[in-house]
Amino acid sequence: MGPSIGFFSFSILFGLLNILNPIYSPITNIEEVVLVQHEEVVVSVESDEDLLFFEDATYNSIYQELFFQTNEPTVQIRIYDDFESMVYLLPVKSDRIKIGKSLFESGKYTVVFDVEGDRRRFASKLEIK
């Protein structure tokens, strides 16, 4: 009688964990979603949370500027190169952000948008061609 009760309890616990896991999963990784596709720059994100943070992302080739419209004001932006070294720390305090392409050399970067409260941050990948 003991082993069958243990197996029954384990089955219920395992089923409950599988049901609750999607509810409490904080970040869902997705396939890379491209926000900006241009011959000079590509901006992409890799999670649902990051995707939902951006209302708009565009590249103006005349002014050579990236424009980001976010759902929440960004306090600062940290930009890391391909070697994960911080190359820029930009104070922002806005939900409308313009970044000049002239700041970057050709290569791959990670752009981290920090928002106020609880150290929340959202990341995008940037490739300058």
How would you sum up this structure, described in words?
It contains two helices and seven strands. With 129 residues, it is α+β, with helices and mostly antiparallel strands. The radius of gyration is 21 Å and the shape is globular. Mean pLDDT is 84; it is low at 20-25. The chain has one domain (29-128): Immunoglobulin-like (Sandwich). Strand 1 and strand 2 (41-47) form a beta hairpin. Strands 1, 2, 3, 4, 5, 6 and 7 form a seven-stranded antiparallel sheet that branches.
What topology emerges from the helices and strands here?
Elements (H helix, E strand, L loop, with lengths): L1 H23 L4 E9 L3 E7 H6 E7 L4 E16 L5 E15 L6 E9 L5 E8 L1
Antiparallel strand pairs: 1-2, 2-7, 3-4, 4-5, 4-6, 6-7
Task: Give the C-alpha Rg.
Answer: 21 Å
What distance separates the N and C termini? 68 Å
What is the number of beta strands? 7
**Which structural category fits the helices and strands?**
alpha+beta
Name the poorly predicted regions. Answer: 20-25
How many domain regions?
Answer: 1
Shape: globular
CATH topology: Immunoglobulin-like
**CATH C-level name:** Mainly Beta
> Largest sheet, if any?
7 strands, antiparallel
CATH architecture: Sandwich
Tell me, rounded to a whole number, the average pLDDT.
84
Number of helices in the DSSP assignment = 2
Order of helices and strands: HEEHEEEEE
